Amino acid sequence: SMWSRLVLGWLVVGAATLMVVLGRNPGDEHHGHKEDIEHVEGRLAKLNARVQNMIHDLHERTGGEKMKKALHYEARLARLERIKDSFLCHKDREFNCAGYDPQCISILLVCDGIKDCHNGRDEEHCDIPLHPNDEFVGHVIYDKCTQRRPKQMHIHVKSVSTPTFFTAFSKVEANIHIVQKVKLLQGEVQLPSKGYYSYGRHALVIVPPEKDRLGLICYFDGVDPDRCLAAVVHEATLDPCAMFMFVRHHDEGHGEHHHHDDDHDDDHHDDDHDHDDDHDHDEKHDHDDGRRHDEHGHRGHGGHHSHVRRGHGQHGHH
Fold first, then answer.
1. What does pLDDT average to in each consecutive run of 10 residues of the chain (318 residues)?
2. CATH code of the domain containing 264
3. 170 and 41 housed in the same domain
4. Using H for helix, E for strand and C for coil, what is the string for the chain?
5. Which domain holds residue 142?
6. Assuming Cys at both sites, which of 148, 165, 305, 314 could form a disulfide with 180, CB separation 3.0 to 4.6 Å?
7. What pTM was computed for the model?
């Protein structure tokens, strides 16, 4: 569409500008690039204003799929901003607040209910895209290291819990289902796995479930909760050796707009899910979950695949 071409053109111009500026000498102290950075920030601000206006216009006129595409453009713009300031913050230990006043904070402070960034960005996008009984199907992009060489793998989420005293991460338990295609390893395998979701990185991290010490990190873009790009990594070095694209599997029997809740270390939460056999029981369970989360200060918010928003009272809304 005309809107898509215009926005894509703006983003290409922004990306080209960034590559020219940052490509000169990204390892230097940024004092010598002050004027260049200010110029790039100005261009990004204009791009952001145009994208925001377009998103508002699309929401008013059409909504639906075009709205989702507009959100993807916003996510791409956010990635451009992260590239611009990538030399300022440690990518694994710090969160980039972005904006005109560059600021890095500990990743442990993201989504803790307190605005540590001057612009409050660390308390935005605090929804979790993972919920009990969710299933994601991973399609192989390349694979240089796994022993089974699967074309697909499935992640079935068993439980999600967020400690009240440490809300930057949520604990995740899951089953990884792999269909083996290698000549000597025909068949299927279920790997009980544990990991966590990092709000600062928008990433699901699965710790190595086997002796080969291969873990998995699946990165969401912060906009689309239905897909993430996963890297299979060596535990010792975190070097990637395989890539998969995971897409949410929609159960036709339950539709695409059911509501999920995560729990606050309620041990009996998993048992309830394991024994849900009929739709009536599911509805009762959802109602009980909603009541229990209200008691813990949680609140859900609507939308496509409604996500959990942890009710700290200071979160922004995307």
1. 48 47 46 57 63 58 55 56 59 80 88 92 91 95 90 95 91 91 72 94 93 93 90 91 93 47 44 46 46 39 41 38
2. 2.40.128.620
3. no
4. CHHHHHHHHHHHHHHHHHHHHHCCCCCCCHHHHHHHHHHHHHHHHHHHHHHHHHHHHHHHHCCHHHHHHHHHHHHHHHHHHHHHCCCCCCCCCEEECCCCCCCEEEHHHCCCCCCCCCCCHHHCCCEECCCCCCEEEEEEEEECCCCCCCCEEEEEEEEEECCCCCCCEEEEEEEEEEEECCCCCCEEEEEEEEEEEECCCCEEEECCCCCCCEEEEEECCCCCCCEEEEEEEECCCCCEEEEEEEEECCCCCCCCCCCCCCECCCCHHHHHHHCCCCHHHHHHHHHHHHHHHHHCCCEECCCCCCCEECCCCCCCCC
5. 128-318
6. 148
7. 0.55
